[in-house]
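> forwarded from #structure-qc
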């Protein structure tokens, strides 16, 4: 492998990454402004809905004494300061922040605010790549104005449309802009220009690069590469010996801020999936109720994803990872396309019957593939009334 360092990134393009600040939690604070400045955790069930008293004051649930297997969906920055982050088990969060307010998730509200902020951005800069409910890439290359002025216009448009703050990173490419948007949260504005790669990006841990996961991070640490600067200075042959030619070339590229990916305004998904890793391995019989509840919730979330993206699918898949880390998948193709949670649940349940449930379950996932835009699927199943179904 050629050991020559890659050329520096060009400044021809101007790409922004916009990330809403603590999005779900911030939407809830619009609804409950009295909670501003307090540690708030999102992820409770319906029983955590605040109660309004006769005098108009509200009574909130607290994390103290939480018992169950729920997972934190997100948290306010005040809760994060206490060590509570998304994907953390709720019982662990209760130990760290027992007085934190616990609120239920409201995906319908989050989707509505997602549409609002994206529409506001599109009025300023229409070339947008949707990366999820709370983040987008924006190509500002052909938009008149300086980078900082454009970013301030975008932030103002988002605030006026939603009442929420966002953080924006701007650089010549998607890689650096995504890193930059995280550097000065919340309400951040970070521009990576000439000299900023070495000054602001290289001192960061290599794990800050999107695409370097925990396993690669551990392998890099084992050979003494801890920061992005370490990676930029690493001998090419050393990286190739440990990661192979293709990934080694990519590692050197990202360390030098090189990323040629375009902002993609539209792409057809091949599949949509939802999965969860349990805080502890669940027994098929003793934890049957908990498994069934999660199974139903995953199917409901898939329905919401499909409806939001306006897709229907025919092939339903199940994914299990057991306590011995063995992963098993099964698929079933339906006669008609569907986006209905109950239909997805029934098909995934049939897939489950083809798996020997002889170990505790570590991970459960459900997938829908063979997708079509909803408007092209004349035979798509009509939505049905949701109902509780068993895991088995």
């Amino acid at each position: 492998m050629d050991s020559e360092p890659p050329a520096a990134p060009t400044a021809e393009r101007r790409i922004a990454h916009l990330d809403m600040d603590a999005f779900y939690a911030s939407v809830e604070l619009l609804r409950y402004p009295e909670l501003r400045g307090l540690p708030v955790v999102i992820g409770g069930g319906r029983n955590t809905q605040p109660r309004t008293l006769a005098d108009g004051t509200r009574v909130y649930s607290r994390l103290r004494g939480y018992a169950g297997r729920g997972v934190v969906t997100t948290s306010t920055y005040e809760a994060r300061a206490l060590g509570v982050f998304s994907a953390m088990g709720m019982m662990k969060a209760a130990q760290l922040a027992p007085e934190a307010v616990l609120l239920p998730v409201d995906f319908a509200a989050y989707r509505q605010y997602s549409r609002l902020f994206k529409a506001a951005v599109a009025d300023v800069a229409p070339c947008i790549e949707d990366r999820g409910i709370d983040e987008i890439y924006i190509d500002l290359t052909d938009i008149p104005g300086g980078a900082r002025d454009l970013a301030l216009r975008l932030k103002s448009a988002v605030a006026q449309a939603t009442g929420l703050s966002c953080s924006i990173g701007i650089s010549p490419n998607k890689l650096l802009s995504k890193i930059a948007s995280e550097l000065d949260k919340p309400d951040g504005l970070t521009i990576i220009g000439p000299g900023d790669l070495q000054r602001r990006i290289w001192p960061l841990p290599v794990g800050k690069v999107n695409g370097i996961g925990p396993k690669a991070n551990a392998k890099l640490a084992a050979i003494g590469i801890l920061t992005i600067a370490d990676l930029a200075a690493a001998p090419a042959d050393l990286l190739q010996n440990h990661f192979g030619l293709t990934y080694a070339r990519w590692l050197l590229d990202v360390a030098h801020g090189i990323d040629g990916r375009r902002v993609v305004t539209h792409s057809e998904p091949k599949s949509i999936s939802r999965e969860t890793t349990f805080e502890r391995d669940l027994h098929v019989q003793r934890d049957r109720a908990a498994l069934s509840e999660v199974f139903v919730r995953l199917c409901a979330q898939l329905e919401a994803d499909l409806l939001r993206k306006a897709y229907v699918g025919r092939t339903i898949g199940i994914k299990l990872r057991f306590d011995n880390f063995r992963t098993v998948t099964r698929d079933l193709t339906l006669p008609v396309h569907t986006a209905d949670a109950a239909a997805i649940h029934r098909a995934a349940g049939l897939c489950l019957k083809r798996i020997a449930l002889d170990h505790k379950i570590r991970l459960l996932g459900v997938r829908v593939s063979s997708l079509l835009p909803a408007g092209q699927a004349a035979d798509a199943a009509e939505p049905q009334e949701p109902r509780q179904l068993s895991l088995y």
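QC bot note: The CA atoms of residues 103 and 384 lie 28 Å apart. Residues 6-11, 379-392 have pLDDT under 50 and may be disordered.
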